[in-house]
Amino acid sequence: MKHKGSTPEQWLDLYGDILYRFSLARVSDPDIAEDLVQETLLAALKTKVDYAGKSSEQTWSIGILKYKIIDYFRKASRASA
């Protein structure tokens, strides 16, 4: 079932601040936090057709961001090893 929510053009206005604050609280670097939000929004755009509406769009986008943050720390730990 296709869910009808906001448009991708609205996501930054709707969820940008919460995504940025969530990311910044975890990575403590404003530039990296901003990059992670951009990656999250791009990933959400690519997977929008799979979004079934079982959670709010905000919860869905934060879920994507969590994986982006995990990937960031994985790459950072490999680079320092």
Automatic annotation (TrEMBL):
It comes from Methylomarinum roseum. Residues 15-78 form the RNA polymerase sigma-70 region domain. InterPro entries: RNA_pol_sigma70_r2, RNA_pol_sigma_r2. This is Sigma factor. One of its GO terms (biological process) is DNA-templated transcription initiation. It comes from the Bacteria. GO terms for molecular function: DNA-binding transcription factor activity. It holds the Pfam family Sigma70_r2.
